[in-house]
Amino acid sequence: MAGYIFKRLVSAIPVLLGISVIVFLIMAMIPGDPATAILGSYATPENVEKLNRDLGLDKPLVQRYFIWLGNMLQGDFGRSFSLNRPVLDEVLERFGATLVLAGTAFVLCSLLGVAAGVVSAARQYGAADKAITFFVLLGISIPSFFLGMMMILIFAVKLRWFPVSGMWPIYGARDISALVGHLTLPALALAVVATGVIARLSRSAMLEVLRQDFIRTARAKGVRERAVVWRHALRAAMVGIIPVLGIQAGFVLSGAVYIEMVFQWPGVGRMLVDAILKRDILLVQGGVVFVAACYVMFNIAVDVAQTLLDPRIKT
Amino acid sequence: MTLPELTRRTMMASTAALALGLGAAPALAQTPEGVLIVGQIAEPKALDPAAVTAVNDFRILMNVFDGLVRYKDGTLEVEPALATEWTISEDGTVYTFSLREGVSFHDGTPFDAAAVKFNFDRMLDESHPYHDTGPFPLAFFFSAVESVEVVDPMTVRFTLNGPYAPFLSNLAYPTGLLVSPASVETHGAEVGRNPSGTGPFKFAEWRSNEAVVVEANPDYWDGAPELQAVVFRPITDANTRTAEMLAGGIDLMVEVPPVALSQFAADPYTIHEQAGPHVWFLILNAKEGPFADKRVRQAANYAINKEAIVNDVLEGTAEVAAGPTPPAFAWAYNEALEPYPHDPEKARALIAEAGAEGAELTFYVTEGGSGMLDPVAMGTAIQADLNAVGFDVKIETYEWNTFLGEVNPGLEGKADMAEMAWMTNDPDTLPFLALRTEAWPDKGGFNSGYYSNPAVDELLEAARVATDQDERARLYKEMQVIVQEDAPWVFVANWKQNAVTNDRVGNFALQPSFFLLLHDVTKN
Predict the structure, then answer these.
(1) What ipTM was reported for this prediction?
(2) Which residues in chain A touch residue B372, judged by CB atoms under 8 angstroms apart?
(3) Which residues in chain B are contacts of A178 at CB distance < 8 A?
(4) Interface contact B247-A123, CB threshold 8 A
(5) Which of B4, B29, B53 sits opposite A38 (nearest CB)?
(6) B66-188 CATH fold
(7) A73, B102, B151, B170: which is deepest, by most CB within 10 A?
(8) Residue B251 near residue B504, CB atoms below 8 Å
(9) Model-level pTM greater than 0.95?
(10) Domain spanning B278-496: which CATH class is it, in words?
(11) Distance (Å) of CA A43 to CA B107, B125, B269
């Protein structure tokens, strides 16, 4: 197993190098440069040139890439010029906030999605299945940012049950109840689509398993239906469900961008959008590489988990 | 079959978990008295006045720092601030300021002539030990400054490399705000996160992406502020900002989107509006194509229904512009100027006279950008108006930074017209940088449409070196008449900045400078 993990880790290196090249080239190729973004209307060629020199952007592209890569390997991601602080500080702080949001949403959608899928499958074409299918399709069809705005309108502006935006209260204690209050709406809005997808795929994975011989055998041996569904069938179906969860984790993470914009959650997605608009090259590059690294690691973790469940996968 | 029970139990459990989440949500406390919560449009870059360029950052800075001079309340005319008086030499090149006695920076160090010199040397002198705390993108506001001398502890002298009339006005701009030299020495490049000025509020705390908090400075030389503290919250999404205002999460909201204004039309909200030094215009390519002919440029001015744009597209958040200088520069604005009326017949006649019927025009439109208001909708309305008088207008849309990269180097060979907007602090800035022959893009200026009129050049050069305000005003007024007649631009709109306050906020007024001044504001 250790060898397998090591092999997967080594294979991640070229992936990350490739990502660093791509994000670097994209930032170099998109029109508009940081100096123009900073100077706005005052961007005379002369001012732009001077500022680019001050920002160290006048060197050749290849040289700039290797300086950046070299610094990054030593843990120096550079300094964000639009926020005027080290890129790594900003990214870590923001990524923490995103993890809280996306992590909560992921736990919510996994539990609710799998539970809904199992119930649906166990009661195929029953009332529960039809009701769940209806809500699941509804959830999949509503864009999360729209849902978020509607939730703000109803639960924050009209009912005033929850704050509109942010992660912490501007005043008052920063305790868990304050966090839960701020987290509830965005986490729910973020979880809805993924819950639907997971529910649909869990349902079909379960249906497939429930038709198999060992289930019939278990029933014939008099195992209680609850145990058949939740112990025997679900365990077998998890092999099919876990990769779906892994993919949905990626969607939740990327869907967090919209939700962070709507709820002004101080996460890494909102940071990247702002940074791109401001042409904050180092912040975009550092942020993307960091997020990509986390995503690659997560995928490896999912694969390892799957291998533990079903050793046949390891090849 | 126990499954249904289990299902129900599972569902109930998850419902209960959710309800617990609801129950745990804190009762939303009212924001405290004496603490003003301001909804800003973005996280500030830094709280170092020399290093920033955004109006959003200026809104905080103007309350933490002072300059030598400032704009008189409700105007764009300078009055004393940290300098109590000044003299200007006969030739307009030497400014000597007497400084206010007994003023201290928030960090306790005294304000004196050495501090003034430190600030300008840091920005302008590349060999200054703290020049590396930059870059200072707007340092060119003071590029005329040759040297700053300490005459005595309370007198400082600026020597310019030539007469430069906008100098005092530039000193009133945020780039001229003065920071504590000790704070720069202590914090180096981090001074932007540890600001220390002399202003009515002192910096308390900056929680990244959450809030910047400033507290009242009880020893402020111009009287302690009414508020105990101000919290600036960055809320980049305009809809969310509107929702926060409606939910009571903020007391003051700036840059209200036109479509959201109706939400705040009734109690407990007050909408504030203030025209500022802003002009929204179309650059016309006077070098080549149909707009090389003055009659066609005038025709464009007649063809476009500016009333409809400001009233319908912008929902009344702007006024029709008459010429290149915004009316907010009251002393330099030519009141006699009337906007080009909407007259499609006259436009058609002028086009026919010039033989430009059916001309194809390429029109650069931006998706958004500083001061650009609602550029896509405005561009579409303009396209329709121009097509109605017989042009064939093709729109090309660009993201803001890309747009600047296309427009600033000049429209030659690419486009016939482009949207543009400027906000400035002196009537000199925009025409000097964008209308002179010497300001063509190849000479480093912003005259992207290649307008050239020697009479305008002469007036602008003369106005820049005249130190007498009445004389400057006369020159600018004359310039506006010629430029309006020559029509190098289509003059479209002057934006009225807006803000909304709730009924707990008192004594608030927007400034024509677009700065947010909170010294006198109250909150109960």
Answers:
(1) 0.80
(2) none
(3) 26
(4) no
(5) B53
(6) Dipeptide-binding Protein; domain 1 (3.90.76)
(7) B170
(8) yes
(9) no
(10) alpha beta
(11) 35, 21, 38
